Amino acid sequence: MRVYNKLVRDLIPQVIENTGSKFTTRTLDPPEHLTEIKKKLFEEVQEFQVTTNHQDALEELADILELIHAALPIHEATYEDLEKRRIAKKEKRGGFEEGIFLIAVEDE
């Protein structure tokens, strides 16, 4: 038996069941769920970093976005709340579209 001990997408048990394999799962409580979301998010970001084409990059970005959606209810927030926060920060400090790379700031 192969041991995974990791957060998986909600339909993975059905996928495994359809193959005829036996498996064990449990439902995480909110603090554990958030911990595992953070671990999985780190994993997905690492996978995004090594992508070499647009298709793979979009797949990893979709996984990252799904994990963000999963984390929001744990923080008692909606995607709309997050989007408002994102827009407010962008209006105040800008986004990341222009690719500005800060090299140094001279101390006074």
How many beta-strand elements? 0
H and E order: HHHH
Q: What is the strand content?
A: under 5%
Rg, rounded, reads: 19 Å
Number of domains: 1
Relative helix content: 55-70%
Determine the number of helices (DSSP H or I, runs of at least 4 residues): 4
Give the overall shape, derived from the CA principal axes. elongated
What separation lies between the terminal Cα atoms?
Answer: 62 Å
GO molecular function, one term: hydrolase activity
Organism: Psychrobacillus soli
Protein name: Phosphoribosyl-ATP pyrophosphohydrolase
InterPro entries: MSMEG_1276-like_NTP-PPase_dom
Describe this structure in words.
- The structure is a single chain.
- α2 (30-49) packs antiparallel against α3 (54-74).
- With 108 residues, the protein is an all-alpha fold.
- 58% of the residues lie in helices and 0% in strands.
- The protein is elongated, with a radius of gyration of 19 Å.
- It has one domain (12-93).
- It comes from Psychrobacillus soli.
- GO terms for molecular function: hydrolase activity.
Give a brief outline of the structure.
This protein is mainly alpha-helical.
Summarize the helices and strands and which ones pair or pack.
Elements: H1 12-18, H2 30-49, H3 54-74, H4 79-93
Helix pairs in contact: 2-3
Characteristics:
single chain, 108 residues, mainly alpha, 58% helix, 0% strand
